[in-house]
């Protein structure tokens, strides 16, 4: 069973043809949780990608999470599942994956977060703190929302929304500690360098915050 409190840099990535080289590179760069977030492809392709990613993450000792479906998570041997407000219920995830699996839940407003406090999650996410193309049509929640969630939660709260090497220090200074990254790594010409840059900025900020 993975403890998530000291895992800070969470990558969401969809299927890519270079997963077998991309994923080891970003894990070497400091990513310490990975989620397959794939909304377009069918379940069979998600199984293929998820099985590969689960194997690579296992080699690095990093937890691998499937998005949306606890059943697919079980199929590929993932360490857990991340669900949104309209996906499988957290209790169903627990029934499918068991008490030791990682179950993450997205929240986007105070009411959703308040309800999450009574559910059998392992972590929660808060955001996006700014509008982002990965969440089309969803407005930004602002940093204060994520800070409030972090203060109220007895579990890690991973902040979403355009986190990168330039802004992660200010987010740590605001009181945030766990971060989801997408485009800053997935669109980079050098994914290893992008991950490493964010990791170093994050670690330096955390050291300063002690």
Summarize the structure.
With 210 residues, the chain is an alpha/beta fold. It has helices at residues 19-29, 43-60, 70-76, 90-97, 110-116, 143-152, 168-173, 183-186, 191-209; strands at 9-13, 33-36, 64-67, 80-83, 102-107, 123-126, 157-159, 178-181.
| Percent in helix | 40-55%
Q: What is the string of helix and strand elements?
A: EHEHEHEHEHEHEHEHH
Q: Structural class given helices, strands, pairing?
A: alpha/beta
The total count of strands amounts to: 8
CATH architecture: Alpha-Beta Barrel
Low-confidence runs: none
- End-to-end Cα distance: 27 Å
Strand order of the largest sheet: 1-2-3-4-5-6-7-8
Average residue pLDDT: 95
| Approximate shape | globular
Number of helices: 9
Query: Major β-sheet, in short?
Result: 8 strands, parallel, barrel
CATH T-level fold name: TIM Barrel
Q: What radius of gyration results from the CA coordinates?
A: 16 Å
Query: Regarding CATH, which class?
Result: Alpha Beta
How is this structure best described in words?
This protein is α/β, with parallel strands linked by helices and 210 residues long. The chain has a single domain (9-209), classed as Alpha-Beta Barrel (TIM Barrel), CATH 3.20.20.70. Helix content is 43%, strand content 16%. The chain has an eight-stranded parallel β-barrel, surrounded by six helices. Strand 7 (157-159), helix 7 (168-173) and strand 8 form a beta-alpha-beta unit. The longest helix has 19 residues, at 191-209. The two termini are 27 Å apart. The mean pLDDT is 95.
């Amino acid at each position: 069973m993975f403890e998530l409190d000291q895992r800070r840099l969470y990558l969401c990535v969809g299927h890519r043809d270079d997963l077998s080289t991309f994923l080891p590179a970003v894990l070497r760069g400091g990513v310490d949780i990975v989620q397959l977030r794939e909304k377009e492809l069918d379940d069979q392709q998600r199984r293929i990608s998820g099985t590969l990613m689960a194997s690579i993450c296992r080699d690095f000792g990093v937890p691998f999470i499937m998005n949306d479906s606890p059943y697919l998570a079980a199929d590929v041997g993932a360490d857990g599942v991340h669900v949104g407000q309209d996906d499988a219920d957290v209790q169903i995830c627990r029934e499918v994956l068991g008490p030791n699996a990682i179950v993450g839940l997205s929240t986007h407003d105070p009411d959703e977060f308040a309800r999450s406090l009574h559910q059998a999650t392992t972590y929660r996410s808060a955001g996006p703190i700014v509008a982002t193309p990965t969440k089309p049509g969803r407005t930004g929640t602002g940093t204060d929302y994520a800070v409030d969630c972090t203060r109220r939660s007895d579990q890690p709260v991973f902040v979403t929304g355009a986190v990168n090497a330039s802004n992660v220090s200010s987010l740590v200074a605001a009181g945030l500690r766990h971060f989801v990254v997408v485009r800053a790594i997935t669109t980079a010409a050098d994914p290893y360098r992008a991950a490493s840059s964010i990791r170093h900025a994050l670690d330096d900020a955390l050291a300063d915050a002690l």
